[in-house]
Structures are given as C-alpha cells and as structure tokens.
C-alpha cells in the first residue's frame, strides 16, 4: 500500500511534477509549495472478492436509480393526468355557463329568475396565475433527490469477530439470520420492523417497514437478492435486498404467518401459519399456487430439502410431517412427541433434521429412513429454538432459560454454554466462528465462539 508523503495514511493522489503522494487531507499542504501541479488519482486493482462486492454495489445503485427514475416518470405522468383532469372539469363548468348565456341571447321572453340572474348580479372571475404552481414545481424538481453519503467506515483491521450487541430494535426480536458472506445480520420482531445490520461497522444500514403487526419469520433467497417476511397481520411481504424496497405483499393466510422458506431455485416461497395450512406461492406471478392441509394445530416451523422435492413441517399438533413439494401431497408424518414441536432445522446434506418440542427434548431424525435417530435431554427452558451449523457438526439451541448451548452432533454433548438473557432465535456463521442471537432484551448479540469451538472441553462463556 502506498502511503502519503506527509503522513502514514493511504495515498489517494500523486503529483506528476514532484512525484509526491498525498492522502485527501494533505492536498492543501502540497499546493502551498507551488502553483504548478498536475495531480492524478492513484488507481489500483481489486482482489476478486472485493471486486465482486464492488460490482454488486454498483449494480445495486444502478437498480436503485432505475427504479427511482421509473417511479418519478410514473408519478409525473399521474400529475400531468391529474392536472388535465382538473382542468377539464373546470373548463366543463365554464362551457356550461357559456352555453346558458348563449341560450339567453336567443330567447324572446325571459323568466324572472333569468332576468334577475343577469341584471342583479355581476360575473366575477377569480383571478388565477400558474406562476405559483410553476414556482412550486421548479422548487420541487430542483431538489437533489439522491446523493452519495460517505459511510462511517470501520477500521480496516476490524472484523465481524468479537462479542458485542447491536441496539436499535424497539421491542422483542423474534427472528435473526446472517447473509452476504456473514457480514450482515437481519433481524425482525414485535416492533413490526426489519433491520439490516452491518457487522463490520456495527450500524443499522436499513429499516424495512410495512407490516401492521409483529413479524414472526424472515428468510433470504440463496443469492441474497430477496427477503421474505411473515407476520401476525397474516401477510407475507417480499423485499428487494439490492434496491431495499417492497416488491409485493402476499395475502391468503387466515392466521399469523409463522414460518417461510424460499425454494433453492428461488421460483417459489413456502409458508406455514397458525391457520394450520402450508401454502406455496409462485414468485413469477406472486400468486398462491397450492394449499397443503393436514396439520390440526398451528404450524411453527418448516424447511425445504436442498433438491426442492420435500417440505418438512412442525406443528403444535405433536407431529412432524413430510410433504412432496411437486405432487402437493403428504408423504409421511413422524409422531412420538408428547407436546407441540416449536422449531426444526435441516443439515445442509439434507439427511438429518433436528427438532425441539415443548417437552424440552432435542430429537435427531434420519430423513432417508424417516426414523428417529436419537433424543437428547438437557434443555431446561420453554420456547426453545434450534439451528444446525453449515458443516453439520454442531447444534445451536436457546430458550427462556438464559442459556445458549452448542452441542456436538456426533457425541450429543454440550461443547459450549453462553449465559445471557432469554433468547428467541439464533444463527451460526458459515465457519462457526461466531453466532448471532436475538430475544426480549431487544439486542442482536454477536458472540465470538471460535476459541471455544477449537477446544475439546466444554466451556461456559458469561
């Protein structure tokens, strides 16, 4: 890295005459030396990963500007149409009055009201001027509708790693997930808002608003281009993650939408609800394509197999069911639970599913044989949730017992316990370096678990 001639900061400019290098803050110092300068910006090649992020951001901005220009043209046409419509209504009144006066000229005899109308009144025309409207329009369209705001960039050595909290949510957080190479966390909850957190700068980059009641679930497409959210208002909303705006609202459920998932090809969205139904939505038309009935109580969780062939759903009716996605029918249901199933997750290889039920037990299921492999006891709280690490080696669990636990799937033993407030949701980073959690304390917490995971001994982090 080339540094400034005057300090240790990164150089952004070079002087062709003196060969001096300057950061932004030392350009004035350089100009004091002489009046003759030829400056040029220092350019550099980007690594493939940074170039990919750079190009993605440029494309996002192009998409934003394209959408903005389309909206501006649409609203401008609406305004023009409105002006024409109002003008037409006013002219219609004027023409009507003209015709009435013209008829009076052709009359030979007149009624008392006609005589009084003309002889005992004056025609008063309200003065009008379009200059005020013109001035308003000029002021409105002279606004700088977009600008490039310099980010409060983090120090170059800062990473996601570390224990810290992201504050800003107004009420309990119900769901959290990671995206964009684990550099972004997305949370939602009782305050009806979705927040996008930059884990490098520790700031909230965006807030999505639109739901009328508590948000219960969120999910991302595989390429992170779209986000879906389900709410107690019975609606599902689809958001564009690049342009950061609402694409569509899906209506159909008669109860709170508690769980959602995109198919891997991003063509469909599957949702589960307190209305006991699973619904499949065609994202090319945003229309509901199928309804799957079978559960007799609220559906709390669902996942879709990696090949998009099966849907797995968990319900308060004490069953965990398997549905054929393409044939739109139930293939199997796993019983043996003594209470409702609150959470489930599937390993990336699609062969293992983990469930947590209200009886505080963790169950491992063989998907190929549709059988229970094992049952782990050890949860002490209610409202439990579960996540499987991307490598399929660990289970992350939490509840209202003020403990987050990480389990080794192979040994069925706890390898780490994190002591905190009650939690309602959590997620592993791709490499198990850290986890994020959310709960009633309104904070998205980031936990560095890398060191503890490297140890063979169980550890407790407070």
Shape: flat
CATH topology of the largest domain: Methylamine Dehydrogenase, Chain H
Approximately how much helix is present in the residues? 10-25%
Beta strands, count: 32
The CATH homologous superfamily of the largest domain is named YVTN repeat-like/Quinoprotein amine dehydrogenase
Report on the biggest sheet.
5 strands, mixed
Quickly count the helices.
Answer: 5
User: What would you say the CATH architecture of the largest domain is?
Assistant: 7 Propeller
> Strand portion, in percent?
35-45%
Indicate the multimeric state. single chain
The separation of the N and C termini measures 40 Å
Structural class: alpha+beta
Mean pLDDT: 86
Q: Which sequence of strands runs across the widest sheet?
A: 25-26-27-28-32
Overall CATH class of the largest domain: Mainly Beta
**Rg (CA only):** 31 Å
Give unreliable regions as ranges. Answer: 152-159, 456-462
User: How many separate structural domains?
Assistant: 3
Keywords: Repeat, WD repeat
InterPro entries: WD40/YVTN_repeat-like_dom_sf (IPR015943), WD40_PAC1 (IPR020472), WD40_repeat_CS (IPR019775), WD40_repeat_dom_sf (IPR036322), WD40_rpt (IPR001680)
WD repeats: 166-199, 208-249, 250-291, 292-324, 334-375, 386-417, 416-457
């Amino acid at each position: 890295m080339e540094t400034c001639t005057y300090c240790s900061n990164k150089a952004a400019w070079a002087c062709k005459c003196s060969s001096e290098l300057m950061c932004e803050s030392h350009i004035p110092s350089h100009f004091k030396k002489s009046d003759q300068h030829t400056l040029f910006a220092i350019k550099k090649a980007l690594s493939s990963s940074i170039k990919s992020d750079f190009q993605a951001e440029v494309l996002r901005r192009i998409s934003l500007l394209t959408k903005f220009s389309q909206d501006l043209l649409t609203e401008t046409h609406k305004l023009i149409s409105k002006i024409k419509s109002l003008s037409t209504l006013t002219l219609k009144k004027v023409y009507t009055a003209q015709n009435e006066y013209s008829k009076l000229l052709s009359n030979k005899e007149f009624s008392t009201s006609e005589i009084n109308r003309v002889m005992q009144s004056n025609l008063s025309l309200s003065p009008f001027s379009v200059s005020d409207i013109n001035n308003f329009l000029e002021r409105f369209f002279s606004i700088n509708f977009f600008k490039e705001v310099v980010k409060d960039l983090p120090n170059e050595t800062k990473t996601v790693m570390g224990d810290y909290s992201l504050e800003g949510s107004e009420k309990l957080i119900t769901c959290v997930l990671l995206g964009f190479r684990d550099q972004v966390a997305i949370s939602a909850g009782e305050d009806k808002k979705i927040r996008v957190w930059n884990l490098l700068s520790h700031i909230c980059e965006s807030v999505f608003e639109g739901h009328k009641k508590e948000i219960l679930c969120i999910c991302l497409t595989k390429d992170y281009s779209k986000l879906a959210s389900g709410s107690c208002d019975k609606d599902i909303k689809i958001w564009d993650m690049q342009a950061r705006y609402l694409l569509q609202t899906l209506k159909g459920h008669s109860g709170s939408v508690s769980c959602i998932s995109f198919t891997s090809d991003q063509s469909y969205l599957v949702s589960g609800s307190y209305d006991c139904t699973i619904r499949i939505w065609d994202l090319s038309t945003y229309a509901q394509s199928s309804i799957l009935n079978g559960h007799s109580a609220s559906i709390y969780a669902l996942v879709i197999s990696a090949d998009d062939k099966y849907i797995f759903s968990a319900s308060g009716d004490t069953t965990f069911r398997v549905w054929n996605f393409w044939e739109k029918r139930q293939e199997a249901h796993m019983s043996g639970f003594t209470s409702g199933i609150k959470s489930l997750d599937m390993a990336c290889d699609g062969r293992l599913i983990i469930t947590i039920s209200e009886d505080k037990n963790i169950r491992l299921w063989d998907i190929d044989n549709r059988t229970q492999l094992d049952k782990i006891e050890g949860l002490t709280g209610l409202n439990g949730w579960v996540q499987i690490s991307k490598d399929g080696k660990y289970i992350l669990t939490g509840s209202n017992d003020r403990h987050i636990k990480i389990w080794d799937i192979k040994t069925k033993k706890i390898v780490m316990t994190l002591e905190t407030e009650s939690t309602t949701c959590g997620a592993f980073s791709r490499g198990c370096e850290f986890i994020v959690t959310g709960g009633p304390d309104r904070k998205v917490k980031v936990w560095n678990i890398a060191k503890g995971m490297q140890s063979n001994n169980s550890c407790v982090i407070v």
